[in-house]
Amino acid sequence: MKKMWKSLFGICVAVGFISQSYAEPAPTKQQMMIEDCHVEGIRSQVRCGKLTVPENYNKPTDATLDVNFVVLPAHDNSKNNTPMMFLAGGPGQAAAQMASGILRMFSEVRKTRDIILVDQRGTGQSNGLQCNNFEDYDLYEDITDDMSSQDILDCLADFNVDLSHYNTTNAIRDFDALRDALSIEKIALYGGSYGTRAALVYMNMFPQHIESVVLDSVGPVEIQIGLFGQTGARSYQLLLENCQLDEACHQAFPNLDEEFQALIERVEAEPIRATVMHPTLGSPTEFVISRTKLISTLRLQLYFMQGRQFVPYVIHQAYLGNYLPLAGLVAQSGGDESGQIHAGLLFNILCSEDYPLVKQNQWQADADNNFGRNEAQKNWHLACGVWPTYEVEREYFKPVTADIPTLIMSGKLDPVTPPSYGDITDKTLPNSRHIVVKNASHIVVSSPCAIDLVNEFLTNKDPQAIDDTCLVEIEDERFITHVNGSN
Q1: Quick one: signal sequence residues (predicted)?
Q2: Per-residue pLDDT reduced to its tens digit, 391-445
Q3: Residue 239 falls within a domain, yes or no?
Q4: CATH number for the domain harbouring residue 463
């Protein structure tokens, strides 16, 4: 069932479970191996390495684990600019596995500074906590509604490690230990989605080692994220409004929400079973559509401007009984494996750091919406009902007040980390600026303009001086209205 987690979870962030004070262990130089290498998707030679760190930082002589990392060397090292460390999302994404995509996205940044990609402990080659029993999920015929508590327990049984140490704060200790092992005095941070939560905790734990920070699509330390119902419904409502503002979309789908609500009623009554031509194989395939599959597939599209443009057409065609376009979106969700979520780490962090702090009335209020209802929270309840919980170092999840130059970016259309979240973080930081991009969704740096802003900020380290006029050139949201595209 691995594919399910990519579509249901965009960000999980860590908030303390048990308030307890811990003394920060004294930093020690760890054993490191680094060598020239090649990684998939990148033609040029890069640097790969392993850093041996304690599994438990309070007992550094006991069990250890190897943290995997990749360094994308700067093309021009003449200025010796501060390296940028990329903090991946999820939690559960392995940054090193996404090296080729990150290189394409941050090619301008890499011209003058190294980019460091670290597989967070519990991901990728840093003892990845992947659930083997989720591997055989059929995207078309299976429905995630059938997942049981036993599936979660079977996943848990796969791991022969002390899971209590696979958390956000120990990940930050790993990141800072790597900074030290690479003899970097100060580091620049880019965090996207859950990576913003990691960056904020880094700012609380080791502010003296950070030169500047970019927070893209913010998960504030003050908010227990996992309540995706209202944020998803907000993003869907903005899509409806933008469709009505677009003449072609309005003419093609004048009753879009009514059709969506009717479609929801249809799949709630009974899962739909339709025979469609397989989008990639071209052979007849049974396609089973439950409410969970419908909403999670559409919700995933809200994350990306490219995906959002298909949502009205897919809803309309499904309402008319043509489910092939929806099957095509499902096929896309099962494609790229580079950004896969390691479900074991996802559960381990969420179920201890977030889930216990959410009250029942919050769950109920979040489910009271016209888009995803309670779908975004159903699997949290299932997983966290059986997953063991561990103590959390609560003091590191307080609001961040470190005087570090910080650029905050939010997409107005974001279904999981709306601009109001960026406002929360902006209020507590003394040297920050929050830029909201009108025509962007989750992860703002997907646009060339935003990348230029990041590069300018990392160079000048003055958030107030950034020239953001290029943002007005980003075109309004457009939509596909028929099989050949838009009018």
Answers
A1: 1-23
A2: 999 999 999 999 999 999 999 999 999 999 999 999 999 999 999 999 999 999 9
A3: no
A4: 3.40.50.1820
